[in-house]
Records
---
Amino acid sequence: MTDSDILTDILSFSQLPLAPAIHRAVDELGFETPTPIQAESIPPLLAGRDLLGQAQTGTGKTAAFSLPLLSQLEVDKKYPQLLVLAPTRELALQVAEAMQSFARHLPGFQVLPLYGGQNMTLQLRRLQRGAQVVVGTPGRIQDHLRRGTLRLERLSAVVVDEADEMLKMGFIDAVEQILEHAPKERQVALFSATMPTAVRKIAHRHLKNPVEIKIKRTTTSMAAITQQFWAVKGLHKLDALTRLLEAEEFEAVLVFVRTKVATVELAEKLEARGFAAAALNGDMTQQMREKTIEQVKSGALDIVVATDVAARGLDVARITHVINYDVPYDTESYIHRIGRTGRAGRQGKAIIFVTPRERRLLAAIEQASGQKIAPISLPSRQDISDRRVSLFKEKISEVMAQQELDFFEELIDDYQQEQDVDPRRIAAALSWLLQQERPLQAPAEPEGRASSREDDSALAGGGKKWEREPQRREHSRERDQERQHDRSHDQWRRYRIEVGRQHGVEPGNIVGAITNEANLSSREIGAIKIYDFFSLVDLPHDLPQPLVRHLEKVWIRSRQLYLRPDGEPLPEGAKAKAGPSGRAGKPPRPRTGVRRYPRTNRSEPRKGGKRR
């Protein structure tokens, strides 16, 4: 076969004869168009050719060799068939994780990372169980070869990744010795960012008539775009994203994730936190896609969560920010992503979330974009409070400038005369009512309690525009995780209520009912778990009995709660009232006048028989 026989004009992964299970994984991961290194490497590797590739980190090399070589594995055989050599532990883990993801639908597939510093006994145990793919650093691979615990005589392929880094770190002799242990008839792929003489000599000795590929470095001027990164730590990425959206002044934001499923999940979570967000992915019809883009242009939508392919060609002047929620697989994708902002002479901002293992890719992105990417700290609780207050003031000014307020001025005058109250106090009371859903001030820190992620995520409840009501559509699992974090178990007691998912209840319904009926703040409600026909909620351990008895009779979604400590039986006769379907008739008519709540140790002293 000659080089001219190799198909390189690849526009889609569907054109490549990969194994069906690999195609399925590629589709689920949102891969549609191969990068240049992938388009040029995959066909010859599928054809069994040796390959010498010159390409930078971040160009998509891992998929370039993984997809074709995984397609040729015999997964029913548990001995090593593919060996990948990487210069560092971090890169070995990164490659192993990527391969596990690509091979997710190969039954019985096992990939084993081997590197120094890891427990040897654990590695020996896993080697005995068998693995089709081994990814390791040269020193640890040599160690296992000397011990006889790793045998390479049945290898079908070897990949040497970042050979020039091997040379710099003094591993190049070890790489050559390992290649000599491999069978004579095996396929070899060697990748290197540069081609020093020592690397070329190894390629000449160990590769047979290789296909040579050279991918030029992409350098793009991004003068109109400010680039920053946040080192992922501590906070969950969703909480971090919410903080940024609360603190940044933006018109529209494009958030990039890797998969189609993630676009929908993240858009729903942002909607639940009060943002006008929508997904954009390849599964959408052209009509839906056009409608979403038009909503962004008109200002009906502020945030779009998209995959790389779905956002190609997107040209909306309102997009002031691009946030890389997931790091792209290659630098080409990053350049395309951030190019969606900073258009038509306007300034734009690009922010990328980077985990410790992705720092190498960050360096490659800096080279590709031609800019140093500066680290940022997340906005503090005070920053977000200040931003909310600023937006609140802007809204007041906007209303005074645009609305007819004569009726309301008369209403306030009447109230002030009737009650003999300072107008400032009336304005303060109205402001308090308006900000109930999104408090302007961060909640006070409970005495004796350290700050936690849950406390910080309590800020994550507001969108960009004050007039939007938050849509509480987060799953109970996420609400549970947020509320449970860093809370002492002896602070809470778990209660059961007879309303669940089948009755249409959501966490917000439960929080709202209990805070309104029990005169508790939302911070005094712990974890909530919603099941099909009932729910569990953590409430303060010292909840007074009169208050518990009152909450028994509260209704949500046309159902009486029958709240009681988890494990206690239903009150006598309650089961019969509820019936097998869980319906318990209609809720009582709301009473007119002032509702009387049971007195608790949290309420202020009564004066003249009324709560102050």
---
Amino acid sequence: MIPQTFIADLLNRVDIVDVVGRYVQLKKGGANYMGLCPFHNEKSPSFTVSPTKQFYHCFGCGAHGTSIGFMIEYSGMGFVDAVKELAQSVGMVVPEQDDKIPPAQRAQMQAQTMALTDAMTRASDFFKLQLRSAPTAIAYLKNRGLTGEIAARFGLGYAPPGWDNLRSVFPDYEAVVLAESGLVIDRVDEDGGNKKRYDRFRERVMFPIRNTKGQVIAFGGRVLDHGEPKYLNSPETPLFSKGHELYGLFEARQAIRDAGYVLVTEGYMDVVALAQMGFPQAVATLGTACTSNHVQKLLRQTDTVIFSFDGDKAGRRAARRALEACLPHVTDNKTIKFLFLPTEHDPDSYVRAYGKEGFEQEIQEAMPLSQFLIKEAVGEHDMSSPEGRARAQFDAKPMLQAMTPTALRLQIVHALAQVTMTSTYEIESLYELSKPVAPARIAPPRSQRTQPMGLELQIMRVLVAHPALGLEIDEAALNAFQYFGAEPAERLAQLVSAAQSLGESGNFAAFAQHLKSQGDEFDGLIGDIVKEPESERDTERLVLRAAIRQVKHDALKQELSQLFAAGLSADQLGLRYRELTAQQDQLLREAQAELANR
């Protein structure tokens, strides 16, 4: 069982607009985003996504939920798989069960993450400030055709010469967090004696690498002269895994949606220069081969991915690795292409030489994945000989086996059969290709449960919308809930306990996901909250306090009315009467004080 605290942390890290926007074309409409519902056919958008509530809702079919719920309903995957998918996208590791990571250790991990994020942010601010007074770095960027506006958009900076410039940023230059974040390097003498600490990045143009939340998690540094290495990247850290991250993805998200495709390049400068030249939908891998995680992340952003590689042997090898990473994720509603530029060009130089229109033409004529796969299988083999055709089939086998059963795979098998003078049936039999099995996507059912009324509903509504306010509900309030009756009191007590378990950071999305995992009892209430404008927590706190005071008052009034039938002695009766009326007076004073402070 995945801990509820982890679910809450995850929903705080992911952005539902980003998650849903990978599959649904969203447009800003006031405070929310609108689009066509993916769960039922409609011509005008009734599907809304709230960035403040971190929730989606369809006014047509009633489908609603969090980022986790969307992944479950849209893809047909299970709860655990959906959590793992989202966690992977933000670099989180899912604990398998509650006792795997003790609370103290989890708190320590969260504190470490916050410390690392803070260190990277402060370093990024320092590098940006240094760029303003670095004429050589400014000249380099201008020479590459970059404007100050584009440099600011990507947060470019400069690491000046010197071994310990970050000492001016971090008074405790020996802090462990600086080494953990990769900002500094510790070198120890061979005899294990003296330790020397120095800045990792020196005399380089700095490219901050952001996660999907926009937080700086790593850096890439480009040398100004002909020194080596040309690019220096941050090492792997608890925040940063280069096999999961893509440079420029945070900056390119909206442009990718607008363009309808993402362009994957090989370097930081390609991304920044292409954005300058009118192609802001470009991203880059981080000095490593394209991985399966990269492909998943890209296909969640858009239905069309175009890889751009140099036409030399190194570019071909990189393209082949990208092809292999793509194959397990190929579906019939996604398009993957490969663009090979002339040997003497990279994307930046090609756009400068042939203009935006020329590069757009290259993009339109990019090689489809199916064609590239056949081309790689055929290679330089002699298709006029049985040996050559057999070798092409041999080379194609692992690639086809890596693909899921799709219509596209069948088309590739057809093409390979034609090239190798074989039948489709013979290739499928020879490769033992599995037959397609496609899970159906259905909209989540609408709740038919009757909702509570009056004060009970008001309290429940506030708790679900702002679960952190549950921490303010005391034992006296829980006792007063008995006024509603045994069943409603138990329901409210369970709701308060669940809200309190999320702590001060509890929010609507995390709580709604938790409630949904327990059943559909609160679906109607959650749906109503989603439809309403975002409410202010301080305002709702006053509403909750007033409602609880009213419940307490009504409970006291009810007890007073039943007091004389309770069989108490005169002394007991008088004592209890004075206690109840004193409590009523206290509630009245609290209400008056709160009113005076508004």
---
Amino acid sequence: MEEGLQLAVVVCWSVVLIVVLSVLKRVLSQMWLKPARIRSVLSKQGIRGPRPSFLVGNIPEMQKIQSTITNKITLQKQPSDDQRVQHNWDSSMFPYLQQWTREYGPVYMYSTGSKQHLYVSDPKLLRELKLHNSLGLGRPTYLSKTMQPLLGNGLIRANGHEWAYQRKLIAPEFFLDKVKGMVGLMEESTMALIETWESRILESQSSVAEMRIDQDLKTLSADIISRACFGSSYSEGNHIFAKIAFMQDALSNPNLLFGFLNFSFFPTETDKKLRSMNKEVDAMLLKLVKERRTRSELGGVYEKDLLQMILESAATESTDMPQYRHKTDRFILDNCRTIYFAGSETTALTVSWALMLLSLHPEWQERIRAEIVEVCGDHELCHCLQDMDTLRKFKTLTMVIQETLRLYGPGVVAAREALTNMKLGDFDVPEGIHMWVFYPALHRDPENWGPDANEFKPERFANGISEACKYPQAYMPFGFGTRLCIGQTFAMQQLKIVLSLILSKFSFALSPNYQHSPIYKMLLLPEHGIRLLVRRAQ
């Protein structure tokens, strides 16, 4: 009996030992062996970087550099009125990336815990990234997991064949021939905003009104994308956007972006709120989808909004590809989330930053108005905008938009993970490395853009992007490679329509209460809003 008991104890402890050793082996592999292998592959190719510490990598150094820059900015004196808007704010955002660029060159490696990163700002390697079309280059898996409450499993988060399947269904709905049909709703929503602004000017004691335009433009963009997505059901969009805005704010911590260690094992109040909102957004979207399906089955006729197009594409594709049939509803819900977030917020921000820049440069406001008169002649602008050829003639407006996207593009960083070993130019890129591109630094590089890189000069785009700088592949406001933003055409059309209509009615100047403080919260946001003085155009 005793021998049997002893044997059981030995077996029990053996199992425990095996489990412990297995866990230790896995931890050692993930925290040391795999990172060391990745760094070795890069090091042998001459790629350098700051020396990492065990377990934490370069996190302490990143935090120290960030703290030093933050303290320096805090101690600076308040600039005078003519200096309070400086366009070189990028030096205070992720300053360690730029400090290491100066120390180690345009391509270097660094570490955040077990995650190994490759920073890329070399034009030749950027060109290779743009041209690379393998499914082996995807969205970082750890980052995708973090963004799940906001984006579901939609196009932005998906990788591999799942991503290819989703893009095949969604991309055609943003082709130019489809976007043409959305011009009318863009105009209608913008005219409603114009009426609101005109009322505010009338209510003011003078001919000018101070407004925080970024909030109004966010509402406008939400209205446009809601109507484009859901047609007559667009009023539901307001509730969805409010919840998505909360999730965006909660998930915008840079620690999550770079995969810093998180030792919280219990859900916080924010985590619980995110889960709750996640379910609520799904329920609202699913309700709209079910209502649309029911009415369609009863013979209802709908305009070809994005929801209807996606429903029809998903139904057809699930018949042709039965392996995806069970994912149809999930596909629709997740990509509606993606369209809401990426399609409305980014465009609203670009219009807001553009009007801020034009407030500083009223001569460009006048040039745009003169161009509208020249192109449209005696025709009403709204009628004029219905013609796609007319929009292409707005060269000055296009230059202003391109320069705004260069200096204040809504996207701040782009990340790619090598899901398999691959070749990029002369480099062998090991599986598991996370590649990073910091747009603001690329778009202000004096080696590429010249000594006036920090100045607002739309004329640099007079002959197109290819002639605007030395390395046009380093201009990427809509991303790069196969994961280039599928809504680029939709966004550019909306930007031209909204800006042309607004600038034909109003002129803008910077408010004395405007505080220039661009911050990163998944996108480039104005921390204190954008306050402008608005008056009717002469």
